[in-house]
Automatic annotation (TrEMBL):
Residues 69-114 form the NADH-Ubiquinone oxidoreductase (complex I) chain 5 N-terminal domain. It comes from the Bacteria. This is Putative monovalent cation/H+ antiporter subunit A. One of its GO terms (cellular component) is plasma membrane. Residues 611-675 form the MrpA C-terminal/MbhD domain. One of its GO terms (molecular function) is antiporter activity. It is a multi-pass membrane protein. It comes from Rhizobium grahamii. GO terms for biological process: monoatomic ion transport.
Length: 791
């Protein structure tokens, strides 16, 4: 067991190791480093592949204590769901690394790119195997950061920077919602790990906070998996290099939200809210994404919008609530990863070899790119849902799950048929149209891609067919354990290539017929969608720009109010807050202290100290210039020092005297260096306001101190110091021992703060003196008191 835990930890660390060593290997080996770097995800793939027999029996948990006193663990949960995602992330990730080596060969920043892609891989791998809530959230946000770096890789282009910022804002905002949701889940159930939550039964569903938790979790999942209206960041992420697009859309970040919904289905699914919100948003996203894909001419954008549609289909199936729907979602997720990764890499090959991705400028490439054409056609067949590809099984399973008599199922089935038919048309628009027909002129003379570019799409396309041909074994080791983990109970997936006569087959034939018609009339559909988009005007993408612009304007307005550049306003606001913090809790919660009785017999020296303090207050108030007020203010500190001395604390009295003396000296020096009017020229109203705030703060501190002294004095700490100061620190002066030994680091920090403050004051004084001298040298009319000799 210990060996398995260590191996899993090592597998999780391998991508991060790749992120560290990639720049050095690229510098030494160039593009050939990709083949060596691909070994790292392949090793992780081999480890998780070896876990399939174990997770088919039951989930595996493991990890290391991080902060045991806080109940924090670096822990993971391996079951059919997490291991399947881990296999997709590492397996497709290895192919993407090889593909990127050929695609970016000769690029000056290839090493940096590999670091980012491995960071992305490690973050996504950590996310899908995380058991601890905090670990899940850390990796969740790390995927957003890594995607920001990858999408904005070509940071010299404004479009890439905007797309990266948009992805970070949308997914980062969703991440904050997810954090709030996870905190509520932990508070409501007492669980700190997913394995605990999944075993808690209906505790979360029966909790009164279920709906807020659900909405927060959906906020995180919908933004990550680009559900309408948060879908806009995903097509714009096509500004990233094609290897990023292929990885992002097939196996990584866009499926993180779907993974989260699948993971939480046993604990949160089965409610009315779950079975309404997920199919509703998923169905709308499916149709909107498919329609927007039709309007595109860029191969990558066509595939990007179909990814939006596919994610909507997955969310709809997860929310539908039946075991057949879960089976369909599982099979479709695996099929989508295979054919979408292959088609994106094909689009990159076409762009790399011809210099364009515009489908209207492409044709007849089957002669120049025969191997690429074969991989593209097989992947398109799977995406279109035709046999003998794994996508055909997925589509049949979807229709089998939706084919019920309820009105909601009819609506969902209609959306699924329309969305799948449109995606059928786009599949062959990408996988067939550029290769068929007459050869067209392209910016570059096309020729077949090298093996580094072909390996990825060829392998994924072949796997899409092999998975269908050997569906029984795939279901045994992948689909059934994954569906069981999502359902929370044992599920056996049995769909195969054998024909299933009935309504699902009829719906499948209808989808193919509609898809063929859409493909035939694709140019007209594109023109019609363009007219619709122009008629609709501003969409969510422009809405994002308006929202960011509005946020910037709001921030500027708030800054002008809260940060106007006037020190007196800052000080006033600060002391208002201090007064409110001190007084309001005492008043609201009825904790005002009992006012002490004035002593009936006051000794002469005590009365003298009291009169001295009152005289100091009066002197400050009536002082006619600032310097006199500062000196008079010192009287208060000296009075307190005398009180310390009278009550037997000579060390405190000495400290107070020193502090007060230094404070008066420093304030006096600073005031003499500032250009201030000798007198306070505030209006009566301003003085009344400032005086009221000062009195409120003083009363707040006094009342809080009085309330604290009402409680019985606990001598436990004093007894501890008296007992151990001599024994441990070998010091007879308890106060000195506390300051130097027990609070040594704290005292060092205080000394450092005081020293830095003094240096800052000295720097400000010198800067002002230097500025005044320069102004005087350039201004012959400068006043004589600046101390500048006249030329």
């Amino acid at each position: 067991m210990a060996d398995a835990t260590a191996l899993t930890f090592a597998a999780l660390c391998l991508p991060f190791l790749g992120a560290v060593v990639a720049p050095f290997l690229v510098r030494m080996l160039g593009a050939r480093a990709a083949w060596l770097l691909a070994l790292l995800p392949l090793l992780a793939f081999a480890h998780f592949l070896g876990q399939l027999p174990a997770v088919a029996v039951g989930p595996i948990t493991g990890g290391y204590d991080w902060a045991p006193s806080l109940g924090l663990r670096f822990s993971w949960l391996l079951d059919g769901l997490s291991v399947t995602f881990a296999l997709l992330i590492t397996g497709i990730g290895a192919l993407i690394v090889i593909y990127a080596g050929g695609y970016l060969e000769g690029h000056a920043d290839q090493g940096r790119f590999f670091s980012f892609i491995f960071l992305f891989m490690g973050a996504m791998l950590g996310l899908v195997v995380s058991d601890n809530f905090l670990m899940l959230f850390v990796f969740w946000e790390l995927t957003s950061i890594a995607s920001f770096l990858l999408i904005g890789f070509d940071h010299r282009r404004a479009a890439a920077r905007r797309a990266a910022l948009q992805a970070l804002v949308v997914t980062g905002g969703g991440g904050l919602a997810l954090l709030a949701g996870l905190l509520l889940v932990s508070s409501a159930t007492g669980a700190a790990e997913l394995s605990q939550l999944l075993q808690s039964g209906d505790i979360l569903r029966d909790n009164p906070y279920y709906l807020p938790v659900l909405l927060l979790v959906l906020g995180g999942a919908f933004t990550k998996s680009a559900q309408f209206p948060f879908h806009v960041w995903l097509p714009n992420a096509m500004e990233a290099p094609t290897p990023v697009s292929a990885y992002l859309h097939s196996a990584t970040m866009v499926k993180a939200g779907v993974y989260l919904l699948m993971r939480l289905n046993p604990a949160m699914g089965g409610t009315v809210a779950w079975e309404v919100l997920l199919p509703l948003f998923g169905g709308v996203t499916l149709v909107v994404g498919a329609l927007l894909a039709v309007a595109q001419t860029d191969l990558k954008l066509q595939l990007a919008y179909t990814t939006v549609a596919s994610l909507g289909l997955l969310v709809m199936m997860v929310g539908f609530g039946t075991s057949h729907a879960i089976e369909a979602a599982v099979v479709y997720l695996v099929a989508h990863s295979l054919f979408k990764g292959a088609l994106f890499m094909v689009a990159g090959i076409i762009d790399h070899e011809t210099g364009t991705r515009d489908v209207t400028r492409l044709g007849g490439l089957r002669h120049a790119l025969p191997a690429t054409f074969a991989a593209a056609l097989v992947a398109a067949i799977s995406m279109g849902g035709l046999p003998p590809a794994f996508g055909f099984l997925a589509k049949e399973q979807i229709y089998d799950a939706l084919a019920t008599a309820s009105p909601w199922a009819v609506v969902a089935t209609s959306m699924a048929v329309l969305g799948n038919a449109l995606m059928f048309a786009i599949a062959f628009a990408v996988g067939l149209k550029p290769f068929w027909g007459k050869t067209k002129g392209t910016p570059k003379q096309p020729h077949e891609a090298p093996i580094s570019l072909l390996a990825g799409p060829a392998a994924l396309a072949a796997l899409g067919v092999l998975a269908a041909l050997f569906a029984g074994h795939v279901h045994q080791w992948v689909s059934s354990p994954m569906a069981s983990a999502v359902s929370g109970s044992t599920v056996e997936v049995g769909i195969s290539l054998a024909p299933h006569i009935g309504l699902p087959l009829l719906l499948s034939l209808l989808t193919i017929a509609l898809g063929a018609a859409f493909y035939w009339q694709l140019d007209r559909l594109r023109a019609g969608m363009a007219l619709c988009l122009r008629w609709l005007g501003t969409g969510p993408d422009r809405g994002f720009d308006h929202a960011i612009t509005g946020l910037i304007r709001l921030s500027a307005a708030v800054t002008r109010i809260l940060q106007p550049g006037r020190l007196e306003i800052y000080i006033t606001c600060t002391f208002l807050c201090v007064a409110a913090i001190l007084l309001l809790p005492l008043w609201i919660y009825g904790e005002l202290p009992v006012m002490p009785a004035f002593p009936s017999h006051l000794q002469l020296h005590e009365a003298g100290v009291l009169l001295l303090a009152l005289a100091g207050i009066l002197a400050v108030v009536v002082a006619r210039d600032r310097l006199t007020a500062i000196v008079s203010l010192g009287i208060q500190g000296f009075s307190v020092a005398i009180l310390f001395l009278l009550f037997g604390a000579p060390d405190l009295a000495f400290t107070q005297l020193m502090v007060e003396t230094l404070a008066v000296v420093i304030l006096a020096m600073v005031m003499t260096r500032l250009r201030l009017s000798p007198r306070d020229r505030r209006s009566f109203g301003q003085m009344l306001l400032d005086g009221s705030i000062a009195i409120a703060c003083g009363c707040g501190f006094a009342l809080l101190l009085m309330k604290a002294t009402e409680r019985p004095l606990d001598m436990a700490l004093s007894d501890f110091f008296n007992t151990y100061s001599k024994a441990i620190a070998h010091g007879a002066n308890v106060v000195n021992v506390i300051i130097v030994d027990f609070r040594g680091t704290d005292t060092l920090g205080e000394i450092a703060v005081v020293a830095m403050t003094g240096l800052a004051i000295l720097a400000l004084i010198r800067v002002r003196a230097h500025t005044e001298r320069k102004l005087a040298e350039n201004d012959p009319n400068a006043p004589e008191d600046l101390g500048v000799e006249r030329p």
